[in-house]
Design brief:
143 residues, 78% helix, mainly alpha
């Protein structure tokens, strides 16, 4: 296989990983922002479940209301291909935070259902984002 065939293969892998990760975060962000509402999300998934932990209530409210907006924005940015490296790092940090939270309440929490698959996509996006010619930032760089 010559270099151009390998580059095209990496381009498709990068596009599909970025698109899938973007859709996953955009759609869950949409649901949390526009259906649950950031305050409802914070109350239901942060404040109530973690009230008996060491985490201060103000921090639970802050993260609980900010995360849906971050997920929506991160998903949109990944879908169009802007700030892909930085957004993927942010999404990876969010997954680390969410993993800690789940394990704090349930030490044997199964990370294989939604955390691990997203983390694998983050790895692929970080490894191959420069091979993705369909990123908006690639098109802007060419100008």
């Amino acid at each position: 296989m010559d270099g151009s065939q390998r580059d095209r293969r990496f381009a498709w892998i990068a596009l599909f990983a970025r698109g899938t990760l973007g859709l996953l975060f955009f759609m869950v962000g949409w649901e949390k922002v526009f259906r649950m509402g950031p305050v409802g999300h914070a109350r239901r998934l942060f404040v109530e479940p973690y009230a008996e932990t060491w985490i201060p209530s103000a921090l639970l409210w802050a993260f609980g209301t900010a995360i849906p907006v971050f997920e929506l924005a991160a998903g949109a940015l990944l879908l169009v291909g802007l700030g892909v490296r930085q957004v993927a790092i942010g999404v990876g940090a969010l997954l680390l935070l969410v993993t800690y939270g789940h394990l704090l309440v349930e030490p044997f929490f199964d990370v294989t259902t939604h955390i691990f698959p997203r983390l694998v996509l983050v790895f692929v996006v970080l490894a191959l984002h420069e091979h993705d010619p369909w990123r908006l930032e690639t098109r802007l760089e060419r100008r």
